[in-house]
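Q: I'm writing up a methods section and want to include an example of the input and output format. Could you take the sequence below and give the corresponding predicted structure tokens, formatted cleanly so I can copy it straight into the document?
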Amino acid sequence: MDHKEFRVKAKELVDYMADYLENIRDHKVYPGVQPGYLHKRLPDHAPEMPEKWDDIFKDVEDHIMPGIVHWQSPHMHAYFPALTSYPSIMGEMLSSAMNVLCFTWASSPAGTELETIAMNWLGKLLGLPECFLNEKNDSQGGGVIQTTASEATLVSLLAARTRALMELSALNPDMQSSELLGHLIAYCSDQAHSSVEKAGLIGLVRMRYIESDEHQCMRGDKLEEAIINDKAKGLVPFWVCATLGTTGSVAFDDLREIGPVCDQHSIWLHVDAAYAGSAFICPEYRHWLDGIELVDSFAFNPSKWLMVNFDCTGMWVRDSNALHRTFNVNPIYLRHENSGKAIDYMHWQIPLSRRFRALKLWFVLRNYGVSGLQKHIRESVRLAQKFEALVLADQRFEIPQPRNLGMVAFRLKGDNTLTEYLLKRLNARGYLHAVPACFKGVYVIRFTVTSQRTTNQDILDDWTEIKTVASEILKEMFGSENGNIVVSKKPRISLKETRELNATFGTSLLLANSPMSPKIVNGTHAAICDYESLLSSCAQTFAELKMEPKDSPEMRRRVRGMKACGKKFSLDSYMDMLQELVVESLPQCSEEKEETPNGPKSDPIGVKF
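A: Here is the clean output for your methods example:
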């Protein structure tokens, strides 16, 4: 392909990508293929001669697309979001064209400095303390873009391990690092991501899992108890991973409790906020960051919820020197005359080479702005709230853990196998895709709002699909769409029965802006108030609205009848009574001027007629 063909075919590809994303609903979110399907369709060796681009791309449509899980679909509810956006795609395209490697400042000055700037922007947007930013010459902290949250977790563990081994070596100069390594122990919640366990395996340190509370949160007292017990056994606690937004139920560990424990025992505290971190751009969700000033490192994925395509993980550290001590290698071919004057990000990560990821992050931050990104986050949460309400309205389902942010963990009531069958059949049908979680023996389906294209109708469609499949399963297993769950229905009670049961029941004609109005309703429930408070408040309302009281014999007879019966009536009826009081100062109609020998008649509550 030469530059002329590239200009034509690349433009066609952009149109194809735009059409794909805008018509994503045309695709089943989950493919109906089996392992090995592609091996049967494609040759087992590379072509000897060049092939035409059109033939290559035809195979994409014919063979690749049928096996794609459409992560950008509004019906994709598995895992956590893995979003992209047009400015992010354009940043990726431009970065691919330049293909610069940003391992040192000298290898890409603009790439290095743009990453520092973008991470400072993002850190401020999240509300991170100044110690995590790199804006001053003497700043020890700063942000770096890692590939994944898993890598960020491993980087922090290795940095903490190096610090701990240096301290132990100073106290035990006769012991080798390999001997000291066996004494180290790290901690995380039993709800922490599997990448934390993997980091311990790679780092060759044992991991202690702290039992979470009833809300799936790691608490400070449990952590401290484990640390004290391990110290008594001769172990050296050196690293703790707290999770803000667990995978199973989006639970939040308490940093305000955990931070002081880590500080007291000189333990590195890392925070994994892979999914939930994006929400902290909205001030109303930053209460979960309380205690962040006690943290040593913090990471989250803009590639999940901030519409920056994979891979892009933001990681901030309080002391970048800890990373340098762990990953610093300095061969002559990587040295440059500005070494030490500028950041060389190769010392902040495991691999040497690194992509120009800052460009797509910078594009998204500028193109959406703070307000656009906040709107996106809040809309996802609103849609999750809508789905939560739909689930709670169906007595066959339950939500065993409170919803946080954009994920709802729900299940069919009863044995775990019911929910398992439901999930397997939903995924097999392919109209939506979800994955399970299990906490404390409870099997749930994770339903995450992932796409910025998701609408109210998409949520309703997904819920209809879930209800339909649930009804099929329950009917097959129990012979009823409700299974073995007794669904209570409110019996209809006639107006006559209501009056017999409640002597003070009063009816009122309630007009509503709907095709079915008017309706007869129980006025007792339309407004509950007493005479004293109502009369005083409504008198003020009449004064403010400057309503003109109407005096007529019909009005007086109506009000007198209402008072005489002693029943409760709705607010509109009491307003009529108030008008009667207001017109008291007006000249009375001749037929209503009934005087008693002792003066005007009075009603039982002292209102003069």
